Predict the structure.
Amino acid sequence: MKPLEMPVNRPHAPEFSSGPCAKRPGWTADALNAATLGRSHRSKPGKAKLAAIIDQTREILGIPADYRIGIVPGSDTGAVEMALWSLLGARGVDLLAWESFGKDWVTDVTKQLKIADVRTLQADYGSIPDLSTVDFDRDVVFTWNGTTSGVRVPNGDWIAADRKGLTICDATSAAFAMDLPWNKLDVVTWSWQKALGGEAAHGMLVLSPRAVERLESYTPAWPMPKLFRMTKGGKLVEGIFKGETINTPSMLAAEDCLDALAWARSIGGAKGMIARSEASLAAITAWVEKSDWASFLAETAAIRSCTSICLTIKDAWFLEQDADTRAALAKSIADKLDKQGVAYDIGAYRDAPAGLRIWAGGTVEPSDVEALLPWLDWAWASVKTEALAKAA
């Protein structure tokens, strides 16, 4: 195999990390000049900023008026665990897992909360459990999009409209990039640092009226950390969902979130964000179809993520290598691209099969994804040529 000539065109923004993710196009630190700094987040200006994030999030995503939206600590992880600790235990639970974070929620429920009546529906990286086997008389916990596997649920049709249990959805790499059917979802979580390109440590928690009813009618058997407490005296603490956060938020990060929301609105809101992400996926799909070495980790197009796009290497020589060698070769591809300044942080997740992971949420320009693709070919050819020469 001969090395390819180095491409001329470069992505304008090389930030393809799957979290924290790329800032919106044109972002500079000047976007933070209006931040409410040196003031309490409970001051009138501070609460107004936080309430604005909630209101604008509702508007852009089309979240129903009777759903509560809260800003919570601990990023998406904090939001998911608030939901699990506060809501589970009233019914049996179905847990869906097909990648690393879904497996984390299985661990939480089975080994930390130790709920007895649990069914775990698992699938390997690249595939998804049989969604027709989910029992909606039970509570159901799942990720909408597997950030580490590049696999998403195809739609919300599999979720029962007349369900008796709650649906708890980790949507951190789906919100603002995929169409979420709110009437099918009782709890939805995400973080600012994903599709909005925001800063870390802040989570969003959305509760349906059914979830609120559960909170007010059911008390879990386990101790509840202060950060997770959403009720007092059997009633929802409404202030959490009006900008009165449980823990101190960063008003600098809040200003950054407001900037991202304003930009999202300017490009057509959720539909505009989704269209940009899907355009990037379409570009990579067209490239993969012609590639003699790269393929998608997701087995079928219907479950293929448009945000955390995971690629594997199908080259026969590569597949003949042992697992450690394959991992080292894939890492070398990512390292070459990083060194050239054309793609940062695109190595596969540590638990995933050897390959690459390219973030293509709405803040990433589809033209940058298109510019990256010839560089992927160059990096692969370079790595394989060097490996063959070394082995000769």
